Amino acid sequence: MRTPALSSLPLCIALTAVLSLQACCMGPALPLATSADDVQADEAIVVGKIVISPPIDETEQTLSTARSSGGGCIVNPSAKQYKNTIVLLTDKKLRRIADPEISDYSGRIEAPLGETFYARAPNSGPLYVNRSEIMMALYRSGMEKAVLPSGYKIDIRRGDKAVYIGTIKYHRDEFFEVQKIDIIDEYEKESAAFRKKFGKKFTLRKAIITGGEKSSGRQQ
Q1: Residue 188, φ and ψ in degrees, nearest 5
Q2: Which among 61, 111, 150, 210 is least surrounded, fewest beta carbons within 10 Å?
C-alpha cells in the first residue's frame, strides 16, 4: 500500500502560518467582494472555482480546536473555518514554494471548494498561484495538508475590474495524488451570476487561467 509523502511541521508554526487570521506576524488574505461598492479603484474581482473529484468526505478532514502549549506562540484556534476550503498562495511573481514561510500566506485566496469565489486582487498586473493546499488534519504534534498542483497565471491587466479564470477541477485518488486536471470554461453561467450579484457596473473579462504543474500529495 502506498503512503503519502510526509514532512514535519511543528504545530506552533503551522497554526501561525496557516490558521490564525489574527496573528500579528501574518498578513491578511485577499478580501472577498460582496458588492460592487467593495471594489477599490486599484482592484479587480477574480472570479473562479476549485473542484475536487471525488469531493472530500466528511471523515477525511480532522479539524478540531487546538491550542499552543508554551513556546510563546499565540494563535487563534480557528481550524474549523478551513473545512472544505482550499488556500491559494498568490504573488506577483511566479516561484516554487516547497516549504512556505509565514510571509507566503499574505495575499492568499481562501476559496470554499465547489463554490464560486470573488476575491479582490490588485489590478496592476498578473497574479500567480504559487501553492495550493487543503488542511486535512490537525494534531497536537503537527498538521497534515494536501498540496495540489499550482503554478497558475491569473491574467489580470492594468485597469481590469473583473476577470473570470474558470473552474480548476482536480481528479485525485485517496492519497490526494492528482490523476488529471481539467480547466473548465463556464463563462456564460458565471457571467450571468456575476451580473446578478454585482450589477452592470463592471464587465467580467474572460481570462482563463494558464500554466500549472503536476506534483501533488499529502504532507505532515
Answers
A1: -60, -45
A2: 210
**Predicted structure pTM score:** 0.81
Read off the amino acid at residue 105. Y
- Which residues have CB under 8 Å from 77's CB, separation 6+? 15, 19, 65, 66, 67
Distance CA 159, CA 147 (A): 32
Specify the DSSP element, H or E, that contains 70: none
Nearest to 217 by CA among 92, 128, 119, 131: 131
Task: Give the C-alpha separation, 7 to 145, whole Å.
Answer: 10
User: Which own/partner contact pairs does 91-95 have at CB distance under 8 Å and 24+ positions apart?
Assistant: 91/127, 91/128, 91/130, 92/122, 92/124, 92/125, 92/126, 92/127, 92/128, 93/128, 94/128, 94/130, 94/151, 94/153, 94/211, 95/128, 95/130
Task: Kindly report, residue by residue over 33-59, the tens digit of the pLDDT.
Answer: 999 999 999 999 999 999 999 999 888
What are the sequence ranges of the domains in the chain? 11-219
C-alpha cell at 109: 485566496
CA dist 107 and 120 (Å) reads: 10
